[in-house]
Design the sequence.
């Protein structure tokens, strides 16, 4: 999952659903299907080219074989839904896995994977790419018009792109009821082999998600569940890959600032997992080489919590000599307070000036005073908003729980629970001033609470 990207989240009116035949268009691409959800405004060919390039770059970076497209990838076959199901149902024995292929069940191998066809009577059978000698599940790459429409659909504003399948998780977690169209969209991304992102997403976040796909394939082939590894390692792997490809090494000063304050790898705050994770992966690559790191990921006998703890002294020594510019320290503080997430949670009402301050901070051009300036700006209660913006803000309340669930501090649970009760009460009373002030209190306490450890303490 990519939680960082600071795209200017223009608040687009929440998708007013126009009744089209289908709420998405499926476009074949060499590695599966690109699902254009609610017609994002992108240059389709350019996007396919960029995504194809990103796959090649990521796999090549790790010296992994690049998935080979099926010769018929551009022309998936349509088949009658009834005939497809009849065929599948005649072989119930195939439903019970147990095949040789680590990626596909015997049934999927025999009958293909069905995507929604042009009409309810038809299924689209997308050919399987081949990777490392195996047929693999096609990658479904979903593109939404905006982060707002994507986050709103899954009732989770904590990420800007995601790999790994979300429909089941989303539907279990949330009390929201979805329209038929929305359910159809969610089902597209049910499988692990899927990415969702917004048309505003940048190349780096695309590479980050594709890195998760590469790591997932690699681990799966060796019988290791990628998602059972610590997030420090999985997110670090993805960020290290994407940052290397875009020549962004801001993780180094962020990791070093944490290290020089006595930070421990066994207890990395949620907000720093990505950058500190990238520093850990970089160090492991330096010690073992890319091949050595990949072997470690695919080794089920590795005790990661032990490895991570014992790595701390070498990691601190390695980053001890890094020095910081003013901009580096201010960016570290911004990341530590997760201001990128504050930006996403406040997007419908965020003043332009506050956005400019954030941009400066994340670009490494800010100062530590900019942090206080950001909080001053967002602490001023904006004028009573339209009903649409009210709803967009209310839709963000469950994100506090998602953030808290990833936090190791047990006291935050009660803080979050009290906050949620207050936000629910003020929103049902349509009490904007109290709602907004409580919302900001939530950002400070639940999202940014590590901000009490000021970066200026670093030497
Ligand atoms: Zn990620």
Sequence:
């Amino acid at each position: 999952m990519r939680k960082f990207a600071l795209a200017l989240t223009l608040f687009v009116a929440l998708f007013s659903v126009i009744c089209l035949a289908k709420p998405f268009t499926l476009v074949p691409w060499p590695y599966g299907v690109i699902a254009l959800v609610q017609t994002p405004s992108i240059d389709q060919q350019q996007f396919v080219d960029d995504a194809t390039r990103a796959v090649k770059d990521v796999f090549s970076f790790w010296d992994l074989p690049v998935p080979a497209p099926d010769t018929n990838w551009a022309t998936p076959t349509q088949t009658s839904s009834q005939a497809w199901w009849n065929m599948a149902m005649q072989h119930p024995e195939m439903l019970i896995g147990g095949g040789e292929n680590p990626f596909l069940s015997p049934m999927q191998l025999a009958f293909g994977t069905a995507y929604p066809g042009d009409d309810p009577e038809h299924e689209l059978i997308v050919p399987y790419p081949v990777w490392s000698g195996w047929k693999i599940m096609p990658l479904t790459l979903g593109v939404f018009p905006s982060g707002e429409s994507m986050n709103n659909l899954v009732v989770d504003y904590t990420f800007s792109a995601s790999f790994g399948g979300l429909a089941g998780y989303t539907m279990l977690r949330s009390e929201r009821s979805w329209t038929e169209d929305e359910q159809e969209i969610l089902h597209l991304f049910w499988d692990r082999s899927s990415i969702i992102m917004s048309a505003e997403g940048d190349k780096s976040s695309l590479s980050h998600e594709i890195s998760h796909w590469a790591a997932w394939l690699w681990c799966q082939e060796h019988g290791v569940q990628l998602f059972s590894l610590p997030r420090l390692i999985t997110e670090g792997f993805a960020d290290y890959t994407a940052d290397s490809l875009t020549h962004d090494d801001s993780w180094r000063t962020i990791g070093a600032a944490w290290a020089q304050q006595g930070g421990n790898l066994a207890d990395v705050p949620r907000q720093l997992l990505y950058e500190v994770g990238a520093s850990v992966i970089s160090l492991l690559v330096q010690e073992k080489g890319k091949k050595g790191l990949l072997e470690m990921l695919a080794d089920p006998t590795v005790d990661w919590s032990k490895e991570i703890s014992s790595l701390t002294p070498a990691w601190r020594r390695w980053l001890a000599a890094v020095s910081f510019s003013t901009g580096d320290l201010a960016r570290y503080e911004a990341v530590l307070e997760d201001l990128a997430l504050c930006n996403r949670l406040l997007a419908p009402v965020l003043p332009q000036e506050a956005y400019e301050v954030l941009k400066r901070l994340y670009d490494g051009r800010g100062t530590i005073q900019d942090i206080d300036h950001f909080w001053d700006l967002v602490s001023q209660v904006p004028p009573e908003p339209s009903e649409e913006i009210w709803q967009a803000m209310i839709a963000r309340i469950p994100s506090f729980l998602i953030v808290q669930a990833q936090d190791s501090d047990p006291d935050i649970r009660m803080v979050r629970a009290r906050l949620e009760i207050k936000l629910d009460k003020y929103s049902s009373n349509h009490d904007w001033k109290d709602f907004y002030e409580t919302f900001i209190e939530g950002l400070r306490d639940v999202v940014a609470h590590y901000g009490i450890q000021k970066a200026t303490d670093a030497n």
In short: The chain has three domains: 24-204, 229-323, 327-457.
